[in-house]
Specification:
The chain is an alpha/beta fold. Helix content is 38%, strand content 21%. Strand 13, helix 10 and strand 14 form a beta-alpha-beta unit. The two termini are 38 Å apart.
Length: 316
């Protein structure tokens, strides 16, 4: 794995390429073009960007109006605000009104680091999963980000995508197939399978490498789309592995882990299972990686969780 760019950079680079070739692509920002890496976009395509200021509800309303006129609209704002302050507008102006707006949450998860819980978006999966007619995508690396942005252009429904600020190692090769709604099976394993969404996938890959040094066979699934959820890929993995661990940069409530748990119970697949995410507390202060390490979303922490899950003591 090689260090690359932040997923936010890949988002802005890809969108600029698409917008140069399509004048119907518009970006709406809430005083966030700098943090969204859209300064170059604004300089090169000043007629294809709309600035509404720090007014996130207006951001979504304006985006919905432009989409109703046939434009391909990307509403870009920090994930913590666009899925909290603007939730009513996302629900009614976008999803209920069936406007194919691309709601883009930047600096997602705990990317804001030391700014703390007010700026962390650990609720976005949960609240948006409950809203009908909006899909949810959380790319893990630069490859998934580029493919997701390209696929978003003609996506027929409202769509939420979230991106982080840290430079991300590339997991996938250029030949990997990407489709919104279809998980990517990176590898299969008989002892434990990790299912990850978003940027924690990098830590999962590193944890699997550590575990395999001690003879533990690991499977890895990139569940980049939370809605619609790829039920069959998860169930197939659960039936061919001894334990399952979900990993997400989100609250343990309402996200990837709870979707996995409900699906396993619905289909009566009873195996050791652990949800790894952020607990029900105000997060500790630190950088994204420091917060990951504190809550066990690191290579060492995930490897330790897997070893515990595979012990006979856990089963008792």
């Amino acid at each position: 794995m090689a260090a690359n760019k932040a997923n936010q950079d890949i988002f802005s680079d890809t969108l600029l390429e698409l917008a140069k070739a399509n004048q119907d692509i518009l970006v709406v920002t809430s005083d966030s073009r700098g943090s969204a890496k859209l300064v170059k976009y604004g300089e090169m395509l000043p007629n294809q960007i709309v600035e509404v200021g720090i007014a996130e509800q207006n951001l979504v309303g304006v985006a919905a109006g432009l989409a109703s006129a046939g434009k391909h609209v990307y509403a870009v704002s920090p994930a913590c605000f666009v899925t909290a302050r603007s939730l009513e507008q996302v629900k009614n102006d976008v999803a209920y009104s069936d406007r194919a707006v691309k709601v883009i949450g930047i600096s997602a998860g705990v990317s804001y680091g030391a700014l703390g819980s007010t700026h962390h978006s650990l609720h976005d999966y949960a609240v948006l999963r409950t809203i009908n007619n909006i899909d949810i995508v959380a790319p893990a690396d630069n490859f998934e980000t580029r493919k997701a942005v390209e696929a978003s252009l003609n996506h027929p429904r409202p769509l939420y995508m979230r991106f982080g600020k840290r430079a991300i190692e590339t997991v996938h090769n250029s030949e990997t197939s990407f489709e919104i709604g279809k998980a990517i099976v990176i590898k299969e394993g008989k002892d434990v399978t990790f299912v990850a969404t978003g940027e924690p996938l990098i830590q999962v890959v590193q944890a699997a490498a550590l575990l395999e040094q001690s003879g533990i066979s690991c499977g890895i699934i990139s569940m980049h789309t939370l809605k619609p959820f790829d039920d069959q890929t998860l169930l197939n993995a659960a039936k061919h592995t001894s334990a399952l661990i979900s990993v997400e940069e989100h609250s343990v409530y309402g996200g990837l882990g709870e979707r996995c748990a409900s699906l396993l119970m619905e289909h009566r697949v009873y195996i050791p299972f652990k949800i790894v995410g952020m607990p029900d507390e105000h997060t500790v202060t630190g950088s994204q990686m420091e917060i990951f390490r504190h809550y066990g979303i690191s290579a060492e922490g995930l490897a330790q969780t897997a070893r515990r899950l595979l012990t006979p003591e856990f089963e008792r």
